[in-house]
Amino acid sequence: MALSQELGPVTNLPLPRFVSMKAAEGYARHGPGKTHRIDWVYKQRNQPLEITAEYGHWRRVRDRDGVGGWMHYSLLSGTRTVLVEADLVPLLRIPEDGAQVNAHVEQGVIARLGKCLPDWCRITAGGRSGWVRKTVLWGVAPDELRE
Asked: Does the global pTM surpass 0.90?
């Protein structure tokens, strides 16, 4: 972890931080308010997003491709999800190379994020759970640890 992480002026939570889409559809606007033009429309519930700024009830977010804008906080959830960035990633029984494989996950799958160790995270997708290397996930910081 960085020694002095920036905190959001509204929530006092760390910036940047990861969240997910609560709604099935959400508008990312050019600025923090409904009068600003819509730059992007997200249409995937649970999609991981990164909050980079806060202003009132608005959060500036970006997705895996760096695209985003300002979204109303009510469209976002603190539930953590990740995007699998490699194809046919094995879900391992234990966080160890060569461990027994529970299942495989395809590239582009959105998974629920569980516990994270320095190099591994436990994810759940399609009713199956297992450990994967952090390097194949977007939506978790490289140095992030989770219980």
From this structure: yes
Name the CA radius of gyration of the chain, rounded. Answer: 16
Residue 24 CB-density burial (10 A; 0-12 exposed, 13-18 middle, 19+ buried): exposed
**Rounded to whole angstroms, what are the CA distances from 139 to 19, 31, 49, 97?**
8, 23, 7, 22
Chain segment 103-143, per-residue pLDDT in tens: 999 999 999 999 999 999 999 999 999 999 999 999 999 99
Could you tell me which residues are beta bridge partners of residue 52?
none
> Residue 101 corresponds to which tokens in the numbers above?
């494989």
Residue matched to tokens 């559809």: 25
Contact 49, 20 (CB under 8 A): yes
Residue spans of alpha helices (H) in the chain: none
